[in-house]
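Deviation from plan, reported transparently: protoporphyrin IX containing FE complex.
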Amino acid sequence: MQGLGLNPLNRYFPFLEKPRKFRYWCKRYGELAERVVRNAQDCPPPPNSIMASLLSIKDPTTGKPLNLEQLKSEVALLLVAGFETTAHSIAPARLLEWGDLGRLKSLDAAINESMRLLPVTSSGSGREARDDITVEGRVIPKGAVVMLPTYTIHRSKKVWGPDADEYKPERWLGESGHESGAARRPGYQPFSLGPRDCVGQSLAVLELRSVLATLIGHFRFVLAEEMGSFKEAEQAARQHITLKPMVPTPPGQPLRPGLMMHCHPRL
Ligand code: HEM
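Because the crystal trials were delayed, the predicted structure below was used instead.
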């Protein structure tokens, strides 16, 4: 991890708060990843676990196992990619107010719709153009880095229709369903697309389904007054590596991370 983030300007302003914080958290993730690797090396992990697979990988040309730096970056990637993303996708899932939860189709529709409106990786993926290409009359020169802004694409009226900003899980009903874990539909890319899309998407969808089905089976959730309406709660979300829910505050006051809800046990 270079500690520079996606913004190339960070290179020139390393003293600013954002790049400094980014470097700090990269260092902390690096230390955590090193602890995980060293623990696994000292005390062998269960066979067939992700850690056991990482330790057993051999470079096909040299025949050597991954070195400490390579193992650390794999573990750090799994920590960043696999934990924050799923946790913050669970939070805004708004099926709490909608539908027959006994049916998995409704649950999937609600998950898809939540990840459409509030995709945790909202700024999308950066990709470098391999050659000069022309997209809708605009030339993208070879070597340029292009962002595919997921949030914007997920709310495009051209793709989703005039109600693109509305929470309507029913738009997913009648879909052919999941292939390799996540719904496939043009303009829907919460896990990115193409050869470098999310390797953990099937697991992530499984986690979302099981955690949400369990929670909703036991509790009824009602958005707390502090959050305002669903629309206000949605608008308060902010991007800090992942898109996080925030408690709306009066103008001029900093937002606080979190999603406040009342939780009523189902009897
Ligand atoms: C709701 C949960 C998740 C979301 C929204 C998500 C989203 C994404 C996205 C958008 C990318 C592509 C990044 C890019 O284009 O550069 C990605 C990559 C990746 N994700 Fe996930 N992810 C989730 C959960 C997970 C889980 C649970 C794991 C692992 C256990 C995981 C492991 C990875 C890895 C290793 C990559 C890098 C793949 C590569 O570079 O080839 N993700 N994820």
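The two ends are 49 Å apart (CA to CA). We consider this an acceptable substitute for the interim report.
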